[in-house]
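Need residues for this backbone.
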């Protein structure tokens, strides 16, 4: 009797060519993260309209941005443990439903500072699921040789496009329809949520961890139809379920991973402090620097457009070099320098170039940090690792708009903001560079466990 051919599931995924199903899944993740990016950044365009009517101090105005990030902190911290147990698909759809319904509730019910912030906290719980889990999902499907680039097109493109759309709505529609139009448009995620219920498959690697062999065969055939005959007859080699990891967060802090985990957390904290401090206040700050209303709101859209270009360039270099650490350090350093340049230089073209460079380097690097984190940990803790990185990072994101808002109230100009954000970006670069070869070793170890688990 002929012994069936053994197939390693992880290697089959890693060595696949980008096919039709890969592209379709990437489009679904991009559509999902478009609404995530849109909803994350649109509060920056609310500040201008409600500060006077609601009688807000600068610190309170910063909380309009930060309140959603409080919920994000909860969602990002908790979702990984849920997703690693019940599946990526169910958790992702649950997060999208939460986001969609509370986005719809915002223009209906938010008529004060307290009600707006309360609804943003609830919306943020859903948002906390979407970006980290979409990153995990797309990373587990990505062929090895294009992992960063595929993840950027599948996740970062949608997120950046959503942030850009928020800026365009802020510039062109809020002057006509008021700030609530931002959330009426955001509630269009509801039809997407319904559609994904019917066409979003479960993660192959999660199915492998649960031993659902026949489901894996069916999905592998769709991913690599040229090997359909092999998959129908082969014995699938599934990863062994890790033992002794009842607490996956504690596993991230085990001796072999502790330094890498803590350094990634520190970099994420500083990066997201910079991103949300800058994007939350860029329209207001640019008006203080003499820009028109339309131009000031347009700077937010410019940052988002350039962030995707920067992320794509960063990811391409990371794939080409085979490591992300040095590229990330370079990106954050250059982004910090661009922001610091606005302390010493002024004028429309300076504002334009430095804001574009900040989006290109600072936000662009964050996209690659998401994928860098996913690749540094084993499959069974990957969703938790990405979720915890973004959860800790969201502490920086929460503090960013609030601290910058407080600085706006305590000083007469935006210079202290540029100093703080520029220095924080450079410190993030130093942190990630301090890992030396350790992060590369962690990624190699994780890859080895993926292939041989």
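Answer:
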């Amino acid at each position: 009797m002929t012994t069936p051919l053994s197939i390693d599931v992880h290697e089959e995924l890693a060595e696949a060519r980008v096919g039709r199903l890969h592209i379709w899944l990437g489009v679904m993740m991009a559509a999902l993260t478009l609404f995530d990016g849109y909803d994350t950044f649109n509060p920056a365009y609310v500040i201008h309209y409600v500060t006077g009517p609601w009688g807000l101090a600068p610190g309170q105005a910063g909380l309009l941005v930060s309140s959603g990030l409080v919920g994000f902190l909860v969602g990002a911290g908790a979702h990984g443990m849920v997703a690693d147990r019940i599946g990526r698909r169910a958790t992702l759809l649950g997060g999208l439903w939460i986001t969609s319904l509370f986005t719809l509730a915002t223009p209906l019910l938010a008529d004060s500072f307290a009600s707006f912030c309360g609804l943003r906290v609830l919306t943020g719980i859903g948002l906390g699921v979407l970006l980290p889990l979409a990153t995990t999902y797309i990373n587990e499907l990505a062929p090895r040789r294009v992992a960063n680039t595929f993840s950027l097109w599948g996740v970062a493109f949608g997120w950046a496009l959503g942030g850009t759309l928020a800026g365009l709505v802020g510039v062109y529609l809020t002057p006509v329809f008021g700030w609530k139009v931002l959330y009426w448009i955001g509630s269009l995620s509801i039809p997407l949520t319904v559609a994904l219920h019917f066409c979003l498959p479960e993660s192959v690697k999660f199915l492998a961890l649960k031993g659902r062999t026949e489901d894996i065969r069916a999905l592998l055939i769709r991913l690599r139809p040229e090997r359909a005959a092999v998959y129908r007859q082969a014995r699938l080699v599934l990863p062994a379920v890790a033992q002794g990891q009842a607490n996956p967060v504690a596993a991230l802090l085990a001796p072999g991973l502790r330094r890498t985990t803590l350094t990634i957390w520190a970099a994420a904290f500083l990066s997201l402090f910079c991103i949300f401090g800058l994007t939350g206040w860029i329209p207001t700050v640019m008006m203080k620097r003499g820009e028109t209303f339309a131009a000031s709101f347009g700077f937010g859209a410019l940052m988002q457009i350039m962030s995707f270009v920067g992320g794509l360039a960063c990811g391409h270099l990371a794939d080409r070099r085979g490591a992300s650490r040095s590229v990330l350090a370079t990106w954050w350093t250059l982004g910090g320098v661009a922001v610091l340049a606005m302390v010493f230089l002024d004028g429309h073209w300076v504002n334009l170039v430095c804001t574009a460079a900040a989006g290109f380097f600072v936000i662009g690097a964050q996209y690659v940090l998401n994928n860098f984190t996913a690749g540094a940990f084993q499959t069974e803790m990957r969703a938790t690792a990405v979720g915890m990185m973004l959860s800790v990072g969201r502490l920086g994101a929460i503090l960013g708009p609030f601290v910058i808002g407080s600085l706006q109230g305590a000083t007469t100009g935006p210079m202290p903001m540029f100093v703080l954000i520029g220095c924080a970006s450079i410190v993030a670069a130093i942190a990630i560079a301090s890992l030396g070869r350790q992060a590369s070793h962690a990624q190699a170890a994780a890859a080895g466990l993926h292939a041989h688990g």
